[in-house]
Amino acid sequence: MGSSGINAEYMGSSGINAEYMGSSGINAEYMGSSGINAEYMGRTKEKTDKNSDSDSDWSKSDDSDKKRGGLSYKDYWARQRRQRAERDTSRYRAGYPDGGAGNAKDTKNLRFYLGKINCNQPYRIDAFHSRYRGDYGFLESAHNYIQWLFPIREQGLNWEAQPLQMAEIEAFRENTEIQGRIMRSYELILDFWGMRLTDRATGALERSDKWQARYKNLNRRSHNYLRITRVLKFLGEVGLEHLKFPFVMHILDEYGRKDSPLDNIGSSCSYFIGTLRDDDQRAEAWAKLEEYDS
User: Fold this and answer.
1) Distance CA 246, CA 64 (A)
2) How many angstroms separate the CA atoms of 222 and 132, rounded?
3) What is the H or E stretch that residue 80 is in?
4) Digit-coded pLDDT (tens) for 188-244
5) Which of 180, 181, 122 has its CA nearest to residue 149?
6) pLDDT grade, residue 12 (50/70/90)?
7) Residue 219 in 3-state DSSP?
C-alpha cells in the first residue's frame, strides 16, 4: 500500500486512525491473516536478513538507480522508513497543533483512571489490573482494552473509548493515585511483551522470567507494534516521557542481538523512535538502529 502515499499512522485523506481501517471493515491493528503491519505499511511477511545488502531482495526498474541516488535498495528503503516515521509522528511530537481529536469536555479516560467507570470489559481499572495481568490469551486476542489503558489524542474506531483530552492530561500528570495506576498499566503490558520494569524512576527494563514465550509472540504478532507506539505516545502525554527512551533502547538492543529473538521488529522501531520528543535521544536511537541494520 506504500505507493498510494497514504500516511500509515493517520490515514490522512480519510481521517481514519490506522489502528483501525473503518472503510474496509478490517481491524488494522491486527490484520492477522494478511501479514500486513498496518502502521508501517512496509514489506509484508518475513524481514530481509539485516546483514544482507543484496539488491535481489527488492524489485527493480530501469530508473531505480537514479531514484535511489546510488544507494542500495536496503539503504534506500531504510531511509524511506525513517523519513515516513519522522513525518507520521511529527504531529505527536509537536503536541497536536490542531488540538487533537474528540470533544474537549469528554472525561471518560479520567473517570476510568479514577476508578469511577468500567472500560469495555466489566471491570473498573483496579479490578482489570488484578484480573488480566498475566492473562496472555486475553491480552493478545482482545481488541478494545488498549484504548482505555493507554488513551492518546487520536481517534480510533473503538467508539466506546475516547481520545485523550488536555484537561484529562493535566489531571493524569498531577494526581498521584492516577500515576500509580498508569504504572500498573505499563507493567501489565510490559509483562505481556516479556519485559519487566526494574526501576520506575529511570525506566530501566530487563527480560521477564517468561521472556522466551512472550518474545516469540511479540515477534510473530506485529499488531503489538501498533500497541507499542500507542503506549509510548500515552506515556509522553501523562508526564512519563522518561520511561520511553529506556524502552526504545531495550527493544533496539534485543533487535540487535546475534540470533535476535525480535528479528521482525526492526522496521517498526522507526515509529517507536519517532515518538521520542528529545532530539538528542532520537538521534542516539536512530544511530543505534542504523548500526544494527548495517
Assistant:
1) 38
2) 21
3) helix 73-93
4) 999 999 999 999 999 999 999 999 999 999 999 999 999 999 999 999 999 999 999
5) 181
6) very low
7) helix
